[in-house]
Write a structure and sequence with these properties.
The protein is mainly beta. The protein has one domain: Pectate Lyase C-like (3 Solenoid), CATH 2.160.20. Helix content is 0%, strand content 43%. It has a 21-stranded mixed β-sheet that branches. A 10-stranded parallel β-sheet has the order 5-8-10-12-15-18-21-24-27-30, with no helix packed on it.
């Protein structure tokens, strides 16, 4: 293994910042319902305890006059909320890189529990094509102290494409259920190393029955992309992510189908058990496009992880290639500890 290192009256719903926002919602009880397609130039905040029903309509984020869009198109900070049933996109955003809370997202739950379901999230990126800015996540749930308790978020049945960095992110003190989503990357491209689904920095998640494709980086710079990525540990400044289950997903055309990267402060595999299961996944890649070069069906850095009953195929993971850079399963000492690999097909 190579060492690879890796944001019921009609009302205009309030935005996180003052906004040019023509999005009209009607709120009845605990449901606020969008009344038509609309645009906003700042994040739209979901009220606490509410379900935001987009009602089949589209919200488009645009740049404010003389400035640029920041944060999530839809955003919930703390408490609980649900967002469902519509399309979220952005249009013609300038290519300006931001960090922290200002990073571009489609939906952002920061310290908030709830659900994000049945959305079409498309085109969450800056510029006419993909930017190299490390932002543009379609869905991001995170908790780095915003909530004193572990947040719980269900992310189910969403169709996600044309994102800049990552399709779905579950980070920090978060328990995520990531199920039945379609996440489609841009395919081999040299702008940015995209990832399909990321579980990171101490989060725990059940990642099941998703279809994730086209996360492939063909540029220079020593990077690779993952279909499902687990990234955590002291090397990355976080706790380990323990007990994640990556089960029954279909992963195609990703540099690394399932990438488990959990390492200690020195970059070595942990002696703390991470107990991640990557089981029953169908993983394929038709050819070598990464320029490191490095591609693997499953790559593991952890302790006591289990890689069982995965079907892995395609020339992109052909271990017999003379480059020595492609693997069906890359889980070799000294890069991982106590891994169990069985019944790979």
């Amino acid at each position: 293994m190579k060492f690879l290192v890796l944001a019921a009256l009609p009302v205009v719903f309030s935005a996180v910042a003052a906004a040019a926002n023509n999005c009209v919602f009607i709120t009845k009880g605990h449901v606020t319902t969008l009344q038509g397609n609309c645009t906003t130039d700042a994040s739209i905040a979901v009220g606490d305890g509410l379900t935001m029903n987009l009602n089949g309509f589209t919200i488009t984020g645009v740049d404010p006059a003389g400035d640029h869009f920041r944060g999530g198109v839809i955003q919930k900070n703390g408490g609980t909320a649900n967002v469902t049933n519509g399309t979220i996109t952005v249009s013609n955003l300038v290519d300006v890189c931001d960090g922290g809370a200002d990073r571009l997202r489609g939906v952002l739950f920061d310290g908030a529990s709830g659900s994000i379901t049945n959305l079409n999230i498309v085109g969450i990126h800056q510029g006419a094509v993909l930017s190299g800015c490390q932002e543009g996540n379609a869905i991001e749930t995170r908790n780095f102290g915003a909530s004193p308790d572990t947040i719980h978020v269900a992310i189910d049945g969403n169709t996600i494409s044309d994102y800049q960095k990552t399709g779905i992110v579950v980070n920090g003190d978060t328990n995520g259920s990531v199920t039945n989503n379609s996440v489609t990357g841009a395919g081999p491209q040299a702008f940015i190393a995209q990832n399909g689904i990321q579980i990171g920095f101490g989060a725990t998640a059940q990642v099941k029955k998703n279809v994730v494709s086209g996360n492939a980086y063909s540029g220079n710079g020593g990077a690779a992309s993952g279909g499902v990525l687990v990234v955590a540990g002291p090397f990355y400044g976080s706790d380990y992510s323990v007990g994640d289950q990556i089960d029954g997903n279909t992963l195609s055309g990703n540099d690394i189908g399932v990438w488990l990267s959990q390492i200690d402060e020195s970059g070595n595999p942990p002696t703390t058990q991470t107990n991640v299961k990557a089981v029953n996944n169908v993983i394929s890649n038709p050819g070598l496009t990464n320029q490191l070069p490095y591609q693997a069906g499953v790559a593991d850095q952890g302790d006591n992880d289990k890689i069982i009953n995965n079907t892995i195929s395609g020339a992109g993971y052909d271990a017999s290639n003379p480059c020595g850079c492609m693997f069906v399963v890359d889980a070799s000492s000294p890069f991982t500890n106590n891994v169990k690999v069985h019944a790979t097909k």
